[in-house]
Specification:
The chain is an all-alpha fold and about 525 residues long. The protein has a domain at about 280-445 and about 455-500. About 55% of the residues lie in helices and about 0% in strands. The chain has helices spanning about 5-15, 25-35, 40-50, 60-70, 75-90, 95-105, 110-125, 130-140, 145-160, 170-185, 190-200, 210-220, 235-245, 255-265, 280-295, 305-320, 335-350, 360-390, 395-420; strands spanning about 470, 475-480. The protein has a two-stranded antiparallel ribbon with strand order 1-2. A hairpin with a 5-residue loop joins strand 1 (about 470) and strand 2 (about 475-480). Helix 3 crosses helix 4 (about 60-70) and helix 5 packs parallel to helix 7 (about 110-125). The radius of gyration is 34 Å and the shape is elongated.
Length: about 525
């Protein structure tokens, strides 16, 4: 049908007004016009959408003609067809699912065409929010195209949530939450990282039952009952990502016990295997930071000493014993790692206070390491103050380390002080350096007329006496002086404070032709 005849059909339908439904043949001819040239297709699209509601018996044919035009080679025709779909849906809701399906698939288009598909879906959503949400999630459930599924989920959670609607926003949010929970049970990794943040931040994630259910889902995805294999593709990324999500849900009523046990009993024993990974130092630091945060929310453990022993063993490997020689150069030590391990040990060892005291030799060796390490910390502080005072030019990464160093050293000092009491105590409360804003340290300044003396903490006897005055035989008071030795000067240090990602990626539990699976 040529353009002129198609215009005749259009005029007939317009002039018919209330009797338009009697002109079935003219509408049917307009459907045939969708097979014509460029101009015929555009005009046919307008006719079919404008009079769609008046011809129920021809709606399937008309809709199929428009859907065919959505796949036309000409982008302008595709755009015209997409714009027609919301009009056709407005008064014929029985076709809503089919229309939503085609528009959902078109979300994988780029630039202007994506914007048109998105706008068309939002127009339908504005009038029928509940139906559109359910139709989109049903489409995602049935689709095997990973890219289409991901684009659709992103569209729901990033775009539709901020789109004004004619309905109850609370009911709509409830529907999205319920559908997201269902989808999460079989989501692939890309979908998981889109859905989980939304559920955590939603009102569902802020309830006790919701937080616990999300933690159960995260634990299931992490396979906490399975052995940890750092060489498996995506195992590190999955461990880090899932643990980070879990940390945001922990609270006094949502304890981290099963995650803490997994890190202690499955990950730390594989510590040496992490050396073969790319950026292994960054990966290790990331895991230690997660361990510290998880330990903060750990509740009562059935057998705490069986878990804390792995932390203690790794802690000692980062805190070398004093050398037997007269060597005065201190070794390079990782203060950031020690902060995390000391914090984790301090948090859990309080549940088994006899862990350090049951064997006098173990306690003696550990305290020797602590004393030696405190010398390293003092040397580190001297180097830090000298760097600040002399305004040495530093690289950006070193500047960031310098900003965090005072917090790290102060935290270590506070934790070590507790452990030097007899018996050790676990009372001090600190904020991990990487969880608070770094402050650029200022060099020490002695003001005129004021002498401010810093008394270093030493651990050669019972803790708490370092700041006390001791009477001499003459009854006079004097300040307690820390013991000096071969490790009190010529200090050097090296710390690593970088965060990064492990190599590899998740293995998902997706459907269809998914490339990456968590579950085989």
């Amino acid at each position: 049908m040529d353009l002129g005849k198609l215009y005749e059909k259009y005029n007939i339908l317009i002039d018919a007004k209330n009797n338009v439904s009697e002109h079935i043949q003219d509408y049917a001819d307009a459907i045939e016009g969708a097979r014509g040239g460029e101009k015929e297709k555009k005009l046919s699209t307008q006719i079919l959408s404008k009079f769609f509601k008046h011809f129920p018996s021809l709606q399937i044919q008309a809709l199929n003609a428009i859907l065919d035009l959505c796949e036309d080679d000409d982008s302008m025709i595709r755009i015209c067809a997409m714009k027609a779909l919301p009009i056709m849906c407005k008064d014929s809701q029985e076709h809503l699912n089919k229309i939503v399906y085609i528009l959902a698939q078109l979300l994988q288009l780029e630039d202007q065409e994506y914007n048109i598909a998105s706008s068309s879906l939002k127009l339908i959503y504005k009038d029928f929010p509940q139906q559109v949400i359910k139709a989109l999630f049903l489409f995602i459930q049935n689709s095997t195209d990973v890219n289409v599924r991901e684009k659709c989920i992103t569209f729901i959670l990033k775009t539709l949530l901020t789109t004004p609607v004619n309905g109850s926003k609370e009911e709509i949010e409830d529907t999205i939450i319920e559908e997201s929970k269902k989808l999460l049970t079989y989501a692939n990794p890309e979908e998981f990282v889109i859905i989980m943040p939304y559920l955590i931040s939603s009102k569902y994630g802020k309830t006790l039952s919701g937080a616990n259910q999300l933690l159960d889902t995260i634990a299931e995805q992490m396979d906490l009952d399975q052995e940890f294999d750092p060489q498996e593709t995506g195992s590190i990324e999955k461990l880090v990502m899932c643990t980070k999500y879990a940390i945001t849900l922990f609270s006094p009523k949502c304890e981290s016990n099963k995650f803490f046990i997994y890190l202690c009993d499955h990950v730390l024993p594989q510590w040496s295997s992490l050396d073969s990974l790319e950026n292994s130092k960054d990966v290790k630091l990331q895991i230690l930071r997660l361990l510290a945060e998880v330990s903060l929310h750990c509740g009562k453990l059935d057998n705490p000493s069986s878990h804390v022993v792995n932390i203690f063993s790794l802690l000692k490997s980062h805190m070398p014993p004093p050398p037997d020689t007269d060597e005065t150069t201190l070794p390079s030590v990782d203060f950031t790692a020690v902060e995390c391990l000391l914090f984790s040990f301090h948090r859990i060892a309080r549940q088994c206070p006899d862990f350090l005291t049951h064997d006098a030799e173990v306690l003696r060796d550990f305290r020797a390491r602590l004393l030696y390490f405190s010398r390293c910390a003092q040397g580190c502080k001297k180097v830090l103050n000298h760097t600040i005072a002399t305004r040495v030019s530093l690289q950006s990464k070193d500047v960031e380390k310098m900003k965090m160093a005072p917090s790290i050293l102060e935290n270590i000092r506070a934790l070590v002080k507790d452990l030097f009491y007899s018996p050790p105590i676990y009372k001090v409360s600190i904020t991990l350096s990487f969880l608070k804003k770094a402050i650029t340290p200022e060099p020490s300044v002695v003001k005129t007329g004021v002498t401010k003396r810093h008394i270093p903490i030493t651990f050669d006897g019972e803790a708490g006496k370092g700041n006390k005055q001791i009477k001499t035989s003459r009854g006079e008071n004097r300040i307690y002086q820390p013991p000096s030795g071969k490790f009190s000067s010529n200090s050097s240090f090296q710390s690593y404070d970088r965060s990064g990602r492990g190599r590899g990626h998740f293995r998902g539990r997706g459907r269809g032709n998914l490339n990456r699976n968590w579950r085989n």
